[in-house]
Design brief:
The protein has two domains: 113 residues, 2-Layer Sandwich (Transcription Regulator spoIIAA); 165 residues. The strands form two sheets. Strands 1-4-5-6-7-8-9-10 form an eight-stranded mixed β-sheet. The mean pLDDT is 96. It has ten helices and ten strands. A hairpin with an 8-residue loop joins strand 9 and strand 10. It is of the alpha/beta class and 293 residues long. The longest helix has 15 residues. The structure holds iron/sulfur cluster. The site of iron/sulfur cluster has 11 residues, from loops.
């Protein structure tokens, strides 16, 4: 099978089968990102996709879900995604749903009707790295879209009844910018069909442009307690009925809870970390976690 950048997936997709439909990243410019630098963005040919689909049973048995590979597999053309689903259902009949990483702008060229078609053939819960709803932060991080565009694409997905997973990148705005980051991200998520929100926390990785900015003093990382307070504001502002998941090495607590039912419990739990774990201890924990990136 073809896996140009290895296999990348969130932890909860561990039991999925994997299939590459794109390689590299269609954007490849986010200031904090070091991933997918080993490949230029490319859409796989249907011949290659078919070859790989035929090999899925050998490598992954009879998976119920396929998690497409590539930084933003939903950048693939509508026709390619539809034909890929047909191949999957023909040759791997155990598959019930298809996901993958996505950029929010992967949906700009797809109509609500086309997204509905994708839902009908099994696409669900793409993992979208929205990161923030704050225009100043999105611009500073070279995300390549603004909050209005992100909101418009999420509205299309919601109208087409395609649930999706969105993230919140804690600390992305740097020191002193957490309040706006938290409030504006919760604002653009309001009313959207988000089945799960996963949080991770900004990790500065050498060789990224953000790391160089930090070295020059042009970007100051948010403190550890400051990040947790930002996360509390984000959770307090959220109005979605969704799952809140923290399972990433960059966040100092693991939790999977239902919102809004467990909102207060979650905010109190984070407060307990702030109260009982010092800034220094959390900082040391982050240094250890950074070795994984
Ligand atoms: S964060 Fe995602 S969209 Fe941005 S450059 Fe990295 S892989 Fe591409």
């Amino acid at each position: 099978m073809h896996f140009t950048s290895g296999i990348n997936r969130p932890p909860f997709e561990a039991n999925s089968g994997y299939l590459q439909v794109t390689s590299g990243c269609s954007h490849a410019s986010c200031a904090f990102c070091s991933y997918y630098k080993d490949a230029r963005f490319q859409q796989s040919s249907l011949e290659e996709i078919k070859e790989d689909v035929l090999e899925i049973p050998r490598y992954f048995g009879a998976p119920e879900r396929i998690f497409l590979q590539g930084a933003d597999a939903f950048a693939a053309d509508y026709d390619v995604l539809m034909q890929t689903a047909e191949l999957i259902h023909t040759y791997v009949p155990s598959v019930k749903s298809i996901g993958g990483y996505a950029r929010i702008d992967n949906f700009c060229q797809k109509s609500v009707e086309q997204i509905r078609d994708l839902v009908k053939v099994g696409y669900s819960n793409p993992y979208i790295g929205v990161e923030s709803g704050d225009d100043a932060i999105l611009k500073m991080m070279h995300k390549g879209y603004d909050a209005a565009l992100a909101r418009a694409q999420m509205e299309k997905l919601t109208e087409a009844s395609m649930p999706f997973i969105a993230n919140f990148l804690n600390g992305l705005g740097g020191a002193g910018n957490g309040l706006s980051h938290a409030q504006k991200t919760a604002e653009i998520y309001e009313g959207m069909n988000i089945s799960m929100i996963e949080v991770s926390s900004l990790t500065l990785i050498p060789k990224t442009s953000l790391y160089r900015r930090m070295q020059k003093g042009a970007f100051v990382e948010a403190g550890e307690h400051e990040r947790l307070q930002e996360m509390q504001v984000f959770i307090r502002c959220l109005t979605n009925e969704t799952i809140f998941l923290s399972d990433h090495a960059s966040v100092p607590f693991k939790v999977r809870v239902k919102l809004p039912e467990q909102k207060q419990e979650l905010i109190n739990g984070i407060q307990s970390v702030i109260d009982h774990v010092s800034e220094e201890q959390l900082r040391m924990r982050r240094k250890t976690a950074e070795m994984y990136f």
